[in-house]
Amino acid sequence: MTQLTQGYPLSSLVKEDGEALSFKVHRSAYRSQEVFQEEISKIWGHTWLYLGHETEIPKAGDFKTRTLGGRPLIFCRDSSGEIQVFLNSCTHRGTVLCRHSEGNTKFFQCFYHAWVFSNSGDLSALPGDDAYVDVPEFREAMRLRSVPRVQSHEGFVFIAFDPDVPDLMTHLGKAAHYMSLTARIGPAGMETVPGVQLYSVKGNWKLAVENAMDGYHFAPTHNTFVGYLRETGFAVTDDDQYAYDLGGGHGLLILTGHNGRIGMVWEPRFGEAEKDRTVAKRQEMEDRLGPELAKEIADASRILFVFPNLLLFDLEALTIRQIDPVAADQTSVRAWQFVEVDEPAEVRALRIKTMVSFVGPGGLATPDDIEAYEAVQRGIEATANAADPGFDWSDMSRGMANEQKGNQGRSIDEGAMRSFWRHWAGVVGRD
Amino acid sequence: MDGKKSKESAVGGRTITRHEVEDFLYREASLLDEWRLDEWFTLFEEGGRMEVATTDWKGWDSASAGSFMCDDYDLIKARVKRLKSRKAHAENPHSRTHRMISNVIILEQGDKTVWVSANFIIHRYRDGGAYSYVGRYEHVLLVEDEGLRFRLRRSIPAMEAMDAGARLSFIL
After folding, report:
1. Which distant-in-sequence residues (6+ apart) come within 8 Å of B23 by Cβ?
2. Beta carbons of A420 and A251 less than 8 angstroms apart
3. Beta strands A22-26; A14-17: pairing state
4. How far apart (Å, rounded) are the C-alpha atoms in residues A297 and A318?
5. I need a labelling partner for A48 at 20 to 30 A (CA). Which of A169, A201, A284, B70 fits?
6. Which residues are paired to B105 by β-bridges?
7. Are B9 and B116 contacting, i.e. CB atoms less than 8 angstroms apart?
């Protein structure tokens, strides 16, 4: 079993005591470079990862480059319209092949020795190929390296660097249903729009997960945002807000008293025109999906976490957030607004304005979340190697008594964080 | 008048000089650096807007693409109120900021407005960290007898992404 310098086996970084109703996480889980390397290997190397949405590359030849778990990748749609995901590295000597962040192309050419690959991965030209023996075989062997597994659910594209992972739908389990709810909001489907929020935080990636699954922080951390909502005529409550363990490390908060939903639950700041449209939109959804499904989609806000790196904020409007670990104390984030295809321009504008006012590093709420987990990252240095090693643990036992009684966990408890950590301990602690 | 090359622009019967635009932008910069946010808010006309584009911006309208900020007048007001609160945790204590504005150009004139661009470098310091924000402003300013006011205040970051720690909890 892998040992840490402090002598804890990795799986012992999470300590649960059912009798004492105590759940603790050792703070080296956020600080330690060794833990980080174990995560890159055991989670990012062997689990399905959220890469991007198919609508980011709508046309043949469209591509985006991005890094995931430290590996540069090309996410593209080839000339026949198929989604391809390649390691962004020339098969010759390893140069980053595509150095643009996005574009449209039939070919990727390495600038170093001018090898040319098609957007379906074939090595289509290499200067001086007469100097290689068995040229056709050589070309075949030098195809672009595809990521071993690529599968989509409702347009959400996931990849795995391990060819032996179970199928995507097995991995997603119960989380797949909640992704489908989101995908059915628009009669013509959903799409990402350009204008991606790219930012990094000085905090461990797991703090970003915890923060999203932690309803307890909402009122104190977002006091100013809650105040703004009240002033616009919408009262926020934490009644009927629950947390669900979806298994596999995935988590869900279902929030009914949290906020309005554009086209589904009206609130005054959306304006009078949107009030009428909400009635029509609800009817459209009922006609198309049936009353039960329409109700499930429309009546509650949801924050879905798909282990390990996708967060779907289905709130006033929708945001897809992807988290990517850079170092033990640094995380990159990419966030897309997710909108109804062909919705009226004024609704699109309202949707974007409303979501951006809340989420993202320039919103009225997310900066306080970032402040919180960056402050955790700084603060937990205080107890590293403390005289009393008992100080160096974070507590996540809120609501455990209720959990043991079998009651549905509240979003203002820490149950969703516990289910994440139990799964994490199983994956990272496994040798 | 040939917009791009002009130093001044005749709007509503009076002449706007680059000097006047620079004074307006410098005054704005000092109000923000000194956290005099109520005074800063008076620089907007009623119904004015503020936008901060994302780092992948290619000229998109903030009504059809994501952005870092796209505040209507009410949201700017809410933002000022929030930033003055001690419960705006991301800015309590406040960041120290230091703004440099340059390359001011009058781009175009309308009947009541003037379009200007300018470059900015904003240094921000907080919690022992130092962050630089580099970019360009593209503003639409309402010309009034007594001075200029923002109809649209738009910041366009030049960076590839907001670096670690470089959130936008202040006014860019």
Report:
1. none
2. yes
3. antiparallel
4. 12
5. A201
6. B117
7. no
* Sequence-ordered list of residues with C-beta below 8 angstroms from that of A155, at least 6 positions apart, any chain: A53, A54, A55, A183, A189, A190
> What are φ and ψ of residue A309, in 5° steps?
-140, 15
Nearest to B52 by CA among A228, A367, A356: A356
Verify cis geometry, omega within 30 degrees of 0, for the bond prior to B93. yes
Q: Beginning with the edge strand found earlier in the chain, give each strand of the sheet holding A107-109 in spatial order.
A: A107-109, A116-118, A123-125
> Within 10 Å of residue B1's Cβ, how many Cβ atoms?
11
Write the DSSP string, A302-316.
Answer: EEEEETTTEEEEESS
> Which phi and psi angles does A318 have, rounded to 5°?
-120, 140
Under an 8 A CB cutoff, do B67 and A326 touch? no
Mean pLDDT of chain B: 92
Please provide the DSSP assignment of chain B as one string.
Answer: --GGG-SEEEETTEEEEHHHHHHHHHHHHHHHHTT-HHHHHTTEEEEEEEEE--TT-SS--TTTS--SEEE-HHHHHHHHHHHHSTT-GGGSSPPEEEEEEEEEEEEEE-SSEEEEEEEEEEEEEETTEEEEEEEEEEEEEEEETTEEEEEEEEEEE-SSSB-TT----S--
What letter represents residue A1's amino acid? M
pLDDT in tens, A86-136: 999 999 999 999 999 999 999 999 999 999 999 999 999 999 999 998 889
Query: CB B169 to CB A221 under 8 A?
Result: no
Cβ–Cβ below 8 Å for B66 and A361: no
pLDDT at A6 over 80: no
CA distance A355 to A371: 19
Rounded CA gap, A199 and A334, in Å? 7
Interface mutation vs chain A, best among B68, B133, B155, most A CBs within 10 Å: B68
Check if the beta carbon of residue A26 is closer than 8 Å to that of residue A15.
yes
Quick check: B64 and A335 CB within 8 A?
Answer: no
**pLDDT tens sequence across B9-28:** 666 667 799 999 999 999 99
Average pLDDT rounded to a whole number, residues B119-139: 97
Query: Cα–Cα distance between A371 and A329 in angstroms, integer?
Result: 14
Q: In this structure, what token pair is assigned to residue A163?
A: 């060819």
Identify the bridge partners of residue A310 per DSSP, sorted by sequence position: A306, A322
Q: Exposure pattern of A210-220 as b/e (b: 16+ CB <10 Å)?
A: bbbbbbbebee
Q: If we measure between CA atoms, which residue out of A109, A114, A183 comes closest to residue A339?
A: A183
Long-range interactions of A277-283: CB distance < 8 A, separation 24+ = A277/A344, A277/A347
Asked if A154 contacts A134 with a C-beta cutoff of 8 angstroms, the reply is: no
Taking the CA of residue A104 and the nearest CA in chain B, the distance in Å comes to 15
What's the predicted TM-score (pTM) here?
A: 0.94
* Best residue in A353, A355, A373 for a mutation probing chain B (most B CBs within 10 Å): A353
Cβ neighbors of B132 (< 8 A, separation 6 or more) are: B121, B122, B123, B124
Q: Which residues of B touch A225 (CB under 8 A)?
A: 82
A13-39 core/surface letters (b: 16 or more CB in 10 A; e: else): bbebeeeeeebbbbbbbbbbeebbebb
Per-residue pLDDT tens for A252-293? 999 887 678 999 999 998 999 999 999 999 999 999 999 999
Alpha helices, DSSP H, located in A157-222: 168-172, 175-183, 205-212, 218-221
Handedness of CA A28, A31, A33, A38 (dihedral sign): positive
